[in-house]
């Protein structure tokens, strides 16, 4: 599915509803559903139907519970056991037996029912003029599964069954259902009954039907194991547009088969619906607007996404709604992965870069820093499951390497074929196949909230003949959890002054480690994950300035301004979504941002003057945890790398306590962090023993006198409490009077001849 709806039910209510639903069918294993949709009343939006459910008792039982929504049961019968009675309470159908059914017994029950059908904004039965179809998932409903809207069932992800579906419709209409069409029987009363068969065991939300004035478009695809029908059931005014829309459908199927194994279902089937898209087995609901004759990426994205569900969701289904990333994360990854074959690696990387850079703001900022395997029910089909799930799969592929990844995923899919699986099941299957303990990867990316964060703390190099020995100190942090893992794999890129680059995968355990490499050149910088192979908590961008101009990186909250450019300058911005680790003490009165900092790399070819504007904003996403009081003064600090202490630099502030810009002239390579300070912080250390400068009175009201030993022309600089220079004076006498009457009350610093003295304005 690729529609995201925000739900407005409370999580508490959602969990209560889910817990009750999860108990349904716990004592039985459904083997087969035989569903007869006998009569549709399009005017009344109602149906008359019967379903025979065949199940095996897992324990000795004297009743069962099934789910059926909105429809009214008229009878329950069985040739295998006496039915005592039945009752309906909300969506629960309880059937009592006259005697106890022993464990391992296999019986069938036939349930007759009728009434008006249920639908919501998305899921349920939709009546659209003469077109009728179901969508197996409802975003507003909790639990989300809506097989129960048209047949009594155990409506969860784990109890899978095979199906026979009999659909009685007007003889001039065409049906499209899950499985293969086995027979179509004319009833000689203006109706016909179409019999569709799904032989694989699938979850109830994945079985489907549709009928209306459809026209069938047919092709065949020669799969790796069998010839597969490609069917599109389109509306008459769309049929000439199908060719242009589905031009690459066979190529997409071939790519998925190569990577993930043989196509696991009966046919590649799509049906035009007013709402879409939904990955029903063999009968994908595809929004009518997408069948427009155009091979656009948006069109193909949906076609590819839903087809990939044949493997991820249909062949293997997530065990619970909370682990929807196993369905939707893999499918979202797949609708970019196929680009590598059809359109080239660069396009795949472009889309994946955007996705990785967007998840921090689109997922975490809106849905929270939550574990991927425990998504709250109100956002089951939200951006965390789709987009973050996709970039975690992308990270997994790069962690293992593509060939190993493809083979390991095929193993997982085969091991849990037509069953349900959990995140732990996926982890263990990958470990089993690769021999690599995947616990640390899953702890970092799946089981803990948020995302890992990796960075180069510092590096050094020395010549060794015609080579260079480089020592790199790597750091590990985690945004959203107090977690530090082992078996880290991460790519760094060495860059020389001519911008030659060499990428290396590095591995380490724990919070910090020193890694040695030998290179053919002396590195001037080391970039972290320049190709975005891992979904760490960082926004990163490269930009080359070859003329004056501006470049804003909105997600990274920074703007670069090239005022002068000689030849060209390569700028790299890494915006880390974790607090910067400090080397040494943090000065009194100073508090660093706990959530973010920047690493800037600058490689010049010729002279250049490049300024930077760092953006701050007092809100939940950015700096709400830093700016906590109206009295907080925002400043910025700099260090060359993570081995150095933070130091004050010159800057200017434009804005207020809630939002603004901090400007730094001629920005240099290194780390930059926002901080706030109080009246105890000076921004600089006061000289302990001043011999060249004297000020009086102190404290001062209007005028302060400054006397110095030198009578040479001199410069005096005055700084405020934040360390910002607010005035610079030149004088050629031994004494000068400075008017400070317009200064705000507070602490100030005077700098003269490398000495600093503090004074207080009353």
Structural account:
- The protein has eleven helices and 45 strands.
- With 762 residues, the chain is an alpha+beta fold.
- Strand 5 and strand 6 form a beta hairpin.
- The longest helix has 23 residues.
Provide the low-confidence segments as ranges.
Answer: 2-21
DSSP helical segment count = 11
User: Residue-averaged pLDDT, rounded?
Assistant: 91
Separation of the first and last Cα atoms: 66 Å
Count every beta strand, where a strand is a DSSP E run of 2 or more residues.
Answer: 45
Task: Please describe the topology of this protein.
Elements: H1 11-23, E1 28-41, E2 46-57, E3 61-67, E4 72-77, E5 83-89, E6 92-101, E7 106-116, E8 124-128, E9 131-135, E10 161-170, E11 174-177, E12 180-186, E13 191-202, E14 209-212, E15 215-222, E16 227-234, H2 242-245, H3 249-260, E17 268-273, E18 284-287, H4 297-308, E19 316-318, H5 325-337, H6 339-342, H7 345-367, H8 383-400, H9 402-415, E20 419-421, H10 423-434, H11 439-447, E21 451-464, E22 467-479, E23 488-495, E24 501-508, E25 512-519, E26 525-528, E27 538-545, E28 549-553, E29 558-565, E30 568-576, E31 590-592, E32 597-605, E33 608-617, E34 633-639, E35 647-648, E36 652-655, E37 659-664, E38 670-677, E39 693-696, E40 703-708, E41 714-719, E42 725-731, E43 735-739, E44 746-752, E45 755-761
Parallel strand pairs: 1-10, 16-17, 17-18, 19-20
Antiparallel strand pairs: 1-2, 2-7, 3-6, 4-7, 5-6, 8-9, 9-14, 10-13, 11-14, 12-13, 15-16, 21-22, 22-25, 23-24, 23-26, 27-30, 28-29, 29-33, 30-32, 31-38, 32-38, 33-37, 34-35, 34-38, 36-37, 39-40, 40-43, 41-42, 41-44, 44-45
């Amino acid at each position: 599915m690729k529609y995201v709806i925000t739900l407005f039910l409370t999580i508490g209510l959602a969990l209560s509803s889910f817990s009750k639903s999860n108990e349904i069918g716990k004592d039985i294993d459904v083997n087969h559903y035989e569903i007869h949709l006998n009569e549709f009343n399009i005017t009344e939006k109602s149906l008359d139907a019967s379903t025979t459910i065949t199940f095996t008792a897992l324990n000795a039982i004297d009743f069962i519970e099934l789910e059926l929504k909105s429809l009214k049961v008229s009878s329950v019968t069985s040739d295998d056991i006496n039915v005592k009675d039945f009752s309906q309470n909300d969506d629960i159908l309880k059937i009592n037996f006259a005697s106890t059914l022993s464990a391992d017994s296999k019986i069938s029950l036939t349930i007759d029912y009728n009434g008006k059908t249920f639908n919501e904004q998305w899921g349920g039965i939709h009546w659209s003029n003469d077109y009728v179809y179901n969508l197996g998932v409802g975003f507003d409903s909790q639990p989300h599964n809506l097989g129960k809207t048209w047949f009594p069932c155990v409506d969860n992800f784990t109890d899978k069954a095979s199906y026979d579906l009999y659909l009685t419709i007007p003889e001039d209409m065409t049906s499209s259902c899950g499985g293969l069409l086995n027979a179509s029987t004319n009833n000689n009363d203006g109706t016909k009954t179409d019999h569709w068969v799904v032989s694989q065991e699938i979850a109830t939300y994945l079985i489907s039907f549709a009928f209306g004035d459809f026209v069938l478009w047919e092709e065949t695809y020669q799969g790796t194991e069998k010839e597969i029908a490609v069917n599109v059931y389109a509306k008459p005014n769309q049929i000439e547009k199908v060719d242009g829309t589905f031009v690459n459908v066979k190529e997409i199927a071939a790519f998925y088969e190569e990577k993930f194994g043989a196509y696991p279902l009966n046919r590649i089937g799509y049906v035009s619906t007013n709402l879409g898209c939904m990955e029903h087995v063999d009968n994908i609901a595809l929004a009518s607007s997408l069948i427009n004759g155009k091979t656009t990426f948006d069109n193909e994205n949906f076609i590819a996404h839903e087809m990939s569900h044949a493997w991820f969701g249909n062949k293997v289904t997530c065990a619970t709604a909370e682990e929807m990333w196993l369905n939707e994360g893999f499918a979202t990854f797949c609708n970019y992965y196929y680009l590598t074959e059809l359109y080239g690696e660069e396009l795949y990387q472009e889309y994946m870069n955007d996705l990785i850079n967007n998840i921090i703001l689109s997922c975490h900022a809106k849905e929270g820093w939550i574990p991927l395997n425990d998504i709250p029910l109100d956002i089951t089909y939200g951006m965390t499951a789709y987009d973050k799930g996709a970039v975690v799969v992308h990270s997994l592929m790069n962690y293992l390497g593509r060939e190993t990844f493809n083979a390991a995923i095929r193993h997982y899919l085969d091991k849990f074929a037509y069953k349900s699986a959990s995140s732990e099941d996926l982890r263990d299957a990958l470990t089993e196949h690769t021999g690599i303990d995947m616990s640390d990867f899953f702890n970092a990316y799946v089981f803990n909230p948020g995302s890992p964060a990796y960075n180069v703390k510092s590096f050094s190099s020395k010549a060794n003949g015609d080579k260079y020995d480089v020592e790199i100190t790597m750091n590990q942090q985690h945004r959203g959890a107090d977690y530090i893992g082992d078996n880290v794999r991460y790519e760094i890129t060495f860059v020389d002054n001519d911008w030659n680059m060499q990428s290396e995968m590095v591995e380490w355990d724990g919070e910090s480690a020193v890694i040695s490499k030998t290179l053919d050149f002396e590195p001037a910088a080391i970039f972290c994950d320049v190709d975005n192979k891992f979904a760490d908590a960082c926004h990163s961008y490269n930009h080359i300035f070859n003329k004056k101009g501006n470049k804003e990186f909105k997600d990274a909250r920074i703007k670069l301004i090239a005022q002068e450019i000689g030849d060209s300058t390569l700028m790299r911005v890494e915006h880390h979504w974790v607090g910067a680790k400090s080397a040494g003490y943090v000065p009194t009165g100073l508090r660093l941002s706990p959530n973010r900092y920047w690493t800037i790399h600058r490689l010049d070819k010729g002279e250049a003057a490049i300024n930077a504007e760092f953006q701050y904003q007092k809100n939940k996403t950015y700096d709400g945890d830093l700016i906590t009081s109206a009295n907080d003064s925002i400043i910025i600090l700099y260090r060359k790398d993570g081995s150095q202490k933070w130091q004050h630099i010159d800057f200017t502030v434009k804005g207020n306590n809630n939002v603004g810009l901090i400007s730094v002239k001629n920005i240099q390579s290194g780390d930059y962090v926002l901080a706030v300070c109080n009246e105890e912080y000076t921004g600089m250390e006061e000289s302990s023993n001043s011999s060249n400068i004297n000020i009086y009175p102190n404290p001062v009201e209007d005028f302060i006198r400054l006397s110095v030993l030198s009578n040479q022309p001199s410069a005096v600089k005055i700084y405020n409490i934040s360390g910002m220079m607010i005035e610079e004076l030149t004088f050629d006498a031994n004494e000068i009077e400075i008017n400070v009457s317009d200064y705000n009350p507070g602490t100030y610093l005077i700098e003269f001849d490398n000495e600093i003295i503090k004074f207080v304005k009353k």
